[in-house]
Write a structure and sequence with these properties.
By secondary structure, this protein is of the alpha+beta class. The chain is built from four helices and nine strands; from the N terminus they run αββαββββββαβα. The radius of gyration is 20 Å and the shape is elongated.
């Protein structure tokens, strides 16, 4: 076989594999690793992504607990003043508002209740973590934030493709 033929077959296999993975992941929940770069170090949280109106409305409602290294990552199309409430939540949170330049603009220790919580400044992203962790880790205004996006794929769905 010629080298060109082998490269063509390999390219087709790679494209087919990537297409299958994309199709399987298209309707799956995505997660992100959100890292805060503080003066005392870097602190990362594995966050469920809320990037639709429904997922942002739902947020963490219905969850009973949140592990120390977990959170919720709200993503909006643009930066604007954001409002959150802790109504019907089961536990208090830190709400961290982040500007489009990936810099923290406000941190709020939010208790359970009906009070409206404002970002005060335009925010394109918001992260919710267990209350007290922002203070413990030194997450304050102007802290830089980086995101790494991941996709969750159910291994059982992959196995059904192969028989």
């Amino acid at each position: 076989m010629s080298r060109q033929y082998i490269l063509l077959i390999a390219s087709i296999c790679i494209i087919t594999g990537l297409t299958i993975l994309f199709m399987l992941s298209a309707n799956k929940d995505s997660i992100a690793s959100v890292t805060f770069e503080t003066t005392s170090g870097e602190y990362s949280f594995i966050c469920e992504i809320a990037d639709t109106n429904e997922s942002r409305r739902r947020g963490l409602l219905g969850s009973d607990t949140l592990n120390q290294d977990e959170g919720m990552f709200f993503i909006y199309e643009d930066a604007a003043i954001r409002f959150f409430t802790m109504k019907n939540m089961q536990y208090p949170l830190d709400i961290i508002f982040i500007a489009e330049n990936h810099s923290v603009v406000r941190v709020v220790e939010a208790d359970i209740g009906d009070v409206s919580i404002s970002s005060f400044y335009p925010a394109q992203y918001v992260v919710e973590i267990n209350q007290g962790l922002a203070a413990e880790y030194g997450i304050v205004e102007e802290t830089n934030v980086s995101f790494f996006f991941m996709c969750v794929i159910d291994v059982e769905e992959l196995s059904c493709l192969w028989g």
